[in-house]
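ok so i was messing around last nite and threw this chain in just to see what happens. nothing serious, just curious
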Amino acid sequence: MAILGHDVDEAPLVLEALKAFEAEALSSVSVLKALRMGAITRRGRTFLSELMLPLIERQAAQGHWPAALKQDRREAALLHLERYLAAIRKASAFAIYERLFAVWHMLHMPMFCVLVCIVLVHVLAVHLF
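result:
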């Protein structure tokens, strides 16, 4: 949290933006949305970076950070943001797979019952004739 600037007044805006982005990305599950998740996360990365980096600049100015520390904090913040967005992409993909598995399961059970009946008919036919 210190990377995002917890002592800066605007940091809650970053957290609210992160939560809003997460809610938007995970709100509906569809194959079309899964295909668009790359573009959605790139747009989110740009927007969230534009919110976070000025906060880090302000913290650096207030704390009189050396250039190396400021650069390290910027890189760490961007890395955390990238990991967060990757987790959202993975959660979205998991939701798609979960939905596909539910459909597969609905189709699998009737097919299983039909196959069991066919096997029984086959075994009876072989032994009776």
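not much to say yet. The chain has one domain: 2-99.
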